[in-house]
Amino acid sequence: MEIEQRIGRLDRIGQKSQVIRIYNFWIEGTIEKRILDRLYKRIGIFERSIGELELILGNELRTFERDILTKKLTREDEKRLIEQKEVAIETRKNELERLKKNSAKFIGTDQFFNLEVDMIKERRRFITSEQLRRFIMDFLKNICPNSVLGYDQITKLGYLYPDNMLRSIITGYGISEDLLRFFANIDAEIPVTFDPQTAFNHPNYEFINIFHPLTRSIVKYYTESEESNANAHYVVLRTNKLQKGRYIYFIFRLRIHAATGGDTLEMVILDRNLKCACSEEDAEIILGEMIEKGEDSKNTVDKFDRIFTEKACSKASEIFLERIAYSRKEIKENNDVFIDRRLQSLETSYDNYINRKIPLFKDVVLVGEEKEKYFRMLRGKMRKFELEFREKEGNLENQRRLQVEYDDISAGILKII
Q: Are the C-beta atoms of 277 and 228 separated by less than 8 Å?
């Protein structure tokens, strides 16, 4: 701080000199001399900016100053303490230099995440409030027809009047303490909204999201119920991603078991000639639009003979498997990069821990049995840490194995208008 103050008093607006020399004096044989000589010179303090100094020195010199001035230390104790801080600061400096050296790898990271977020929004890789509303409306229509859900799409406000069937399902599958407020008045309608901003502005309205007891109860009902919903549909959709006409679609569920794995829905859309009607990216967007804006057809459903249907199913599976084969290599490479970085971080953490423990064997002032007991304790902690490190290392290596599973979950006719 003193050095930076001296520089600041001279290196200011109006200073005409091209070179400013800062001299720092110390008295020979003092602790200040030893600190400056052993620490400051070795880490090049005079060549660094104040921001770098703060990152490197941090609390090390503050705690060091406290220890060296408040404790009665011998010359040897001071020397050991200086050496201990030297190791800590040198390690910290090397870490920052490695980070700086590798920083080029992270250039463009912000742009990458911006693109990822834009893609998530465009392809609807999340449950929108409108999709959730339609999900619950569909459940009420098919399972609890006497329940009423009224909703204004403009104000995003509505009400729910649950029938006995819905109350029974929620009570049976939900968490009881979560439902006290939801069913506070058995005869009153429940004010609801599916929009987070509207819920913030109207705290007296029940905010229905994917974690709400109502949603969780419906998911559990579908999961555990022996009744299965029809998985063939005729959907009418207005979109600019496909030309007007009728198409056949197939939806597959893809599960990737790896460190960077996931569970996704993939859709294949075929035209009447059983040709792939659009790209994988557009199909993903259309799937989101179907869930959010698709309508049931009011016209007579087209009928296809069994041979044509079998050919369509075979062609869709073929296209889907080709996509998996094409993307499997990229998924494997991304997964390996992720594992390698996690391992590198784990190894750095392990090395830092060991480097902090090694000086403790040298600086101990105990003797005899107490010294041996202290060493056993240190060695025990180090062995435990190493076992934990090896276990984590093994778990990460196991995640290199890539497993892909899939099944078909829905199919039907898609009419584009």
A: no
Please return the burial class of 199, using the count of CB atoms within 10 Å of its CB with bins 0-12, 13-18 and 19+.
Answer: buried
User: Where in the sequence is the domain holding 211, given as residue range(s)?
Assistant: 126-229
Bridge-based pairing of strands 403-416 and 232-237 is: parallel
Q: Are 343 and 396 in contact (CB under 8 A)?
A: yes
CA-closest candidate to residue 92, choices 52, 144, 127, 126: 52
Query: What is d(CA 49, CA 264) in angstroms, rounded to the nearest whole number?
Result: 48
Residues 218 and 237 in one domain: no
For residue 360, how far is the Cα from the chain centroid?
38
Query: How many whole angstroms separate alpha carbon 341 and alpha carbon 229?
Result: 43
Cα–Cα distance for residue pair 404/392, rounded to 1 Å: 23
Half-sphere exposure (Cβ direction) of 78: Cα atoms closer than 13 Å: 17
Last residue of a domain, one of 213, 229, 245: 229
Give how many domains the chain has, as a whole number.
Answer: 3
- The answer to the question of residue 46 being in a domain is yes
SS (H, E, C) 273-288: CCCECCCHHHHHHHHH
Is the domain of 258 the same as that of 391? yes
Distance from C-alpha of 390 to C-alpha of 277, rounded to nearest angstrom: 50
Are 242 and 218 in the same domain? no
Tokens of 303: 């009928």
- Pair 46, 53: CB distance under 8 Å: no
Instruction: Report if residue 110 sits inside a domain.
Output: no
Residue pLDDT tens, the chain, 417 long? 666 666 667 767 777 777 877 777 778 877 777 777 766 666 565 555 544 555 556 556 666 666 776 667 777 777 777 777 777 777 777 766 666 665 544 444 455 455 555 655 655 666 788 888 888 988 898 888 898 899 998 999 999 988 888 888 877 765 555 555 555 555 678 899 999 899 989 988 989 988 888 888 888 888 777 555 556 788 899 888 899 988 999 999 888 888 777 778 889 999 988 999 988 888 888 888 888 888 877 766 666 677 888 899 999 999 998 888 877 777 888 788 888 888 888 888 888 888 877 777 776 666 778 878 888 888 888 888 888 888 888 888 888 888 888 888 888 889 898
- Collect all residues with Cβ–Cβ distance below 8 Å to 7 and sequence separation of at least 6: 20, 22
The two beta strands, 262-270 and 245-257, are antiparallel
Look at residue 118 and tell me if it is in a domain.
no
The domain boundary residue, chosen from 102, 135, 151: 102
Query: What is the model's pTM?
Result: 0.55
Please report whether residue 121 resides in a domain: no
